[in-house]
Design brief:
The protein is mostly helical. The protein has one domain. The protein is 79% helix and 0% strand. The chain has eleven helices and no strands. Helix 2 packs antiparallel against helix 3, helix 3 packs antiparallel against helix 4 and helix 4 packs parallel to helix 11. The longest helix is centred in the C-terminal third of the chain and has 28 residues. The N and C termini lie close together (10 Å).
Length: 280
């Protein structure tokens, strides 16, 4: 694996967990997520003029970018509802772990990534970690929390594959993410129940949080796309799940109290992710 790709994806992981923690702190998570997505669009648009060459050199690159945007829009909706339904550490672990496990089969069957016997052990470790997170003391079998965490994981897998295919057809990471965010914003507005209130209620009281989280959101995805352009989707999605450890740490900072099972589950998910990405 290229060292640069690893550095980029690990930086992306930490930043991604941080902006999710900021979103969790918002008084109205659903409308704050709209603001964060809007800031991400503006932030990325400011970078587009500095890109070189054609952003989308082929029609498939453009079409897959639109698919990524649809996935991103649904992801933001699912993310906000998952964070409303469960603590940060728990929901984040399930979302990222589910997304990783769904990306790997597609990467192997359709995109030519390799899968070694040791990878099966790593997948088992991830599943064990997810089971420990799901049965953590105090969480209980909450069907709503499980549903939104799983649905968000499906969206993560979907936009990861779309991003990777678009990049493989020559899309520029900055332009790709910018178009995806432009598509995602109206999708989220259309689906979010609180869309009638718009952003009027969040900017006066939470403008600082929204601006910082929006910039961090854009930075985390742009770093991830740069890494994704260098290596396979399965490996990069797996390594990005080291953000689960960051998320559990940040959950502690914002006042949550993850128990021993959650710490152990996060550690197992991360160990399994590293095992899947380890070169053989």
């Amino acid at each position: 694996m290229l060292l640069l790709a690893m550095i980029l994806v690990l930086a992306s992981a930490g930043i991604h967990a941080l902006w999710n923690a900021l979103l969790k702190r918002a008084r109205d998570i659903q409308t704050a997520s709209l603001g964060i997505l809007g800031v991400s669009v503006v932030f990325t648009a400011c970078l587009v003029p500095f890109t070189r060459g054609r952003v989308f050199p082929s029609l498939p690159a453009l079409l897959w970018a639109l698919g990524a945007g649809l996935g991103e829009g649904c992801y933001f909706v699912g993310l906000s509802r998952a964070l409303r339904s469960a603590p940060l550490g728990w929901s984040y672990s399930w979302m990222r772990g589910t997304g990783m496990l769904l990306v790997w089969p597609v990467s192997i069957l359709c995109m030519g990534e390799s899968f070694h016997p040791g990878s099966a052990v790593a997948v088992g470790v991830v599943c064990l970690g997810l089971a420990m997170m799901g049965t953590a003391a105090g969480r209980g079998p909450n069907p709503r929390a499980f549903f939104w965490a799983f649905a968000t994981g499906v969206c993560i897998a979907g936009y990861t594959i779309c991003y990777k295919v678009s990049l493989a057809h020559g899309a520029h990471p900055v332009g790709l993410f910018g178009l995806a965010m432009l598509v995602a914003l109206p999708v989220q507005i259309a689906i979010t129940p609180s869309r009638g209130r718009g952003l009027k209620g969040i900017l006066p009281s939470q403008w600082g949080l929204v601006l910082v989280a929006g910039a961090l959101c854009a930075a985390s995805f742009l770093l991830y796309l740069e890494a994704l352009a260098l290596e396979g989707a399965g490996i990069m999605a797996t390594l990005r799940n080291t953000s689960i450890v960051f998320a559990v740490l940040f959950s502690r900072v914002i006042g949550e109290r993850p128990g021993p099972r959650q710490w152990a589950g996060a550690a197992l998910i991360t160990a399994g992710a590293m095992g899947l990405a380890w070169p053989r």
